[in-house]
Amino acid sequence: MKSLLIIILVFISANSIAQEPTYSIKNLKMNDELSQYGAIYQLGNKVYYSRYKINSFGSVDKNRRGQTVFTLYEGEITDDGEIINSKEFKSSDAFVFNSSTAAFSSDRKYMYVTTNEEKRGDVYKHDDKTRNLRIERGEYVEGIGYKNFKPLSFCDPNYSYAHPAVSPNGDYLYFTSNIPSAKGPTDIFRIKIEGDNKFGDPENLGDLINSPRKEMFPTITKDNVLYFSSDRARGIGGLDIYKCIIDEDNNIGNPELMPQPINSRGDDICFVLNDNGKEGYFSSNRAKGKGEDDIYYFEIIKE
Fold first, then answer.
1. Residue 118: per-residue pLDDT
2. In sequence order, which residues have a C-beta less than 8 Å from that of residue 283 and are 6 or more positions away?
3. Are 226 and 243 in contact (CB under 8 A)?
4. How many domains does the chain have?
5. Which pLDDT value is given to residue 57?
6. Which residue, among 60, 58, 57, 41, has the nearest Cα to 49 in the 3D structure?
7. Is the pLDDT of residue 10 over 80?
8. Which of 113, 144, 247, 278 is buried most, with the most CB atoms less than 10 Å from its CB?
9. How far is C-alpha 252 from the geometric centre of its chain's CA atoms?
């Protein structure tokens, strides 16, 4: 009986090891000494990501206060995961300051963007409220692209709302915020999408997900797996990437720390998985990178 038990335990252990994925990663050729982060898939071979805005003189753009400006870029994905033919995302709604960390509804009808301050044409205010982050949503117009960006109705200008992610069925919007019900400096919340810019009440994802530290950058796969970053205790480095499964009743499971080389001693954020479940991107400021933040491409080579 003892020998049989040992054989069973070895078999279980071997299977557990075999099921652990192995990742190969590479730093993209497009990365430079500046900051690139937050790659997100759109349609086909198109991808959006955030980086410093480059002006017509080839230098980093700054706002009237002398602060560097982040904006969205769009590019094309090659067969080996490189991002090429990048260009600044253009919309009829020109953002004055930062725009970053985009997300799309599953039907790609809506684009969600993290931004702050006012858009051109709005009444520009010089106060702290305009510096808070907010989420805006634009609608796709055939032949034109995404336009008519407007702040989501639940965004209170006294707090920040950022890093949107839409559930596969379109029922929920996940985001990062520092509203009063946050347990730490920033928590991850979700809110029921009830109609055209109509939402339920923000729901804190609870103690399993949110700690007394920072939680941010949620993304969701087509299989309803939530990925996010946290600098909670017992991680590998600064911000680490975690994942957890959301079941059919929208209950959220225990978070699992992603292994190396996805996580490192640096800050690791913005994990996104392609619909094929075999490849994706994440961002990191780990040692031996090219810039402040780099975008890394990964493949799952063993499961």
1. 55
2. 36, 37, 38, 39, 268, 269, 270, 293, 294, 295, 296
3. yes
4. 1
5. 78
6. 41
7. no
8. 113
9. 18
